[in-house]
């Protein structure tokens, strides 16, 4: 489908074109309205002038006497001639007297084209009996012709008033030409101002476009200089915030891929090495190699599963909160944790009530913390699990009395692939998964500052309670 020409214009050109068209339309409407109103006013003034001349003629006819001799007029022809001698036409008017016989007389500036016009004579001849007003076009000019019959019962003369409408409208037409020229200049000036203003207003959008075009897969560091306090400035800030999030996400993604590649390289190297030295004729070597390879495959499967879970943590359906009994949840976590190792498992406290939680995800996070505690402690060491409501938040924690967390790792212990002292166990993704689960609930995971052991505490807003 062929695109419309307007769709190929820039936003600035569209705005300028729209303003120019709207201005032109407005000026045209004003001009047409002004012309129509003024034309009607002139038309009414012409009709009034014609009526006034005919009224003066009727009054003169009614007097019936010659003002000089005070004698009655001998004929209609003399009456018309006497009236013409005593009256001057208004501007753009011509007064004609058509006698019953002979050539017509006139007062005023009558063009020869009108005097010799057959259309004019035909109109007068048609109306000299009953009278009337007609419009005649002669040599391109419009004339309004009013005919008044003058009769004494025997002969009939005609008094004719002719108004040149074209000449009367000439000043209006000149005014409209001037108006059109000035309107055209106004449109050009307004279009230029609109183009300049649109350019100023859209300059942040152009900077945004240039920044977006300058961004590459390897460089998300470019930012837009925010100017102003309007909606476009808000758009610039939003775009910069989006770039911050993208840069952070891409950095985390690259780091995760690098770390995952590093973690997978070791078991793959083990697999290849064992297969290269495998003696297929030695059953014991085959069985031992098989068991070792299965262990490595299980490790890689667990790593891939953890990475997939962290990837799902950004999805809105990662957690499905529903009303959960916190007391039952806490006891269930403790009962499950007891199977993680021979430790002294204690219940530190229990919160009561129902809160919106994803019970399975919270249980998963707490068991991960309990597993970490069991892995880094010896048999018989005390490990406590508890829950409470504090400062409008639900707290769930796992504490132990083991060696605690290395102070150098406190600030990065929740990062992906971060490991403690026993780096030979796990991939360092457990606490990252815990943090993802807690943050999906709108909460935070904390490592308490304790003198003995380690205490990991989850804080989750209580929200609506039942």
UniProtKB/TrEMBL annotation:
Its main location: membrane. The keyword Glycosyltransferase does not apply. It is found in: Cell membrane. Residues 199-251 form the HAMP domain. Residues 259-464 form the Histidine kinase domain. SUPFAM superfamilies: ATPase domain of HSP90 chaperone/DNA topoisomerase II/histidine kinase (SSF55874), HAMP domain-like (SSF158472), Homodimeric domain of signal transducing histidine kinase (SSF47384). This is histidine kinase.
């Amino acid at each position: 489908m062929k695109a419309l020409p307007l769709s190929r214009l820039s936003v600035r050109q569209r705005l300028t074109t729209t303003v120019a068209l709207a201005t032109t339309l407005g000026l045209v409407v004003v001009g047409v309205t002004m012309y129509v109103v003024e034309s009607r006013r002139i038309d009414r003034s012409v009709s009034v002038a014609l009526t006034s001349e005919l009224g003066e003629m009727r009054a003169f006819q009614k007097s019936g006497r010659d003002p000089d001799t005070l004698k009655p007029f001998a004929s209609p022809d003399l009456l018309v001639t006497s009236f013409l001698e005593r009256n001057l036409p208004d501007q753009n008017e011509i007064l004609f007297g058509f006698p019953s016989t002979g050539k017509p007389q006139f007062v005023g500036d009558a063009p020869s084209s009108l005097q010799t016009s057959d259309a004019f004579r035909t109109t007068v001849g048609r109306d000299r009996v009953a009278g009337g007003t007609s419009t005649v076009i002669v040599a391109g000019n419009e004339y309004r012709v009013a005919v008044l019959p003058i009769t004494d019962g025997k002969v009939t003369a005609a008094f004719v008033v002719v108004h040149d409408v074209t000449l009367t409208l000439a000043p209006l037409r000149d005014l409209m030409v001037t108006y059109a020229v000035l309107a055209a200049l106004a449109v050009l000036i307004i279009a230029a101002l609109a183009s300049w203003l649109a350019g100023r207003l859209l300059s942040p959008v152009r900077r945004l476009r240039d920044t977006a075009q300058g961004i590459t897969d390897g460089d998300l560091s470019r930012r837009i200089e925010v100017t102003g306090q309007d909606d476009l400035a808000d758009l610039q800030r939003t775009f910069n915030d989006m770039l911050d999030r993208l840069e952070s996400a891409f950095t985390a993604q690259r780091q995760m891929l690098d770390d995952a590649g590093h973690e997978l390289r070791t078991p793959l190297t083990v697999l290849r090495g064992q297969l290269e030295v495998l003696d297929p004729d030695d059953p014991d070597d085959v069985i031992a190699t098989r068991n070792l390879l299965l262990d490595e495959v299980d490790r890689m499967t667990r790593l891939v599963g953890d990475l997939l879970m962290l990837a799902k943590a950004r999805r809105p359906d990662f957690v499905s909160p529903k009303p959960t009994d916190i007391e039952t949840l806490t006891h269930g976590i403790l009962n499950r944790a007891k199977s993680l190792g021979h430790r002294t498992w204690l219940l530190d406290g229990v919160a009561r009530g129902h809160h919106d939680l994803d019970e399975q995800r919270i249980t998963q996070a707490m068991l991960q913390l309990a597993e970490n505690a069991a892995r880094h402690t010896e048999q018989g060491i005390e490990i406590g699990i508890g829950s409470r409501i504090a400062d409008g938040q639900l707290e769930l924690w796992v504490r132990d009395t083991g060696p605690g967390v290395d102070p150098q790792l406190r600030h990065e212990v929740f990062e992906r692939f971060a490991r403690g002292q026993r780096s030979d166990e796990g991939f360092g993704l457990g606490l990252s998964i815990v943090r993802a689960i807690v943050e999906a609930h709108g909460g935070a995971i904390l490592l308490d500052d304790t003198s003995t052991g380690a205490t990991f505490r989850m804080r989750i807003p209580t929200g609506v309670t039942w």
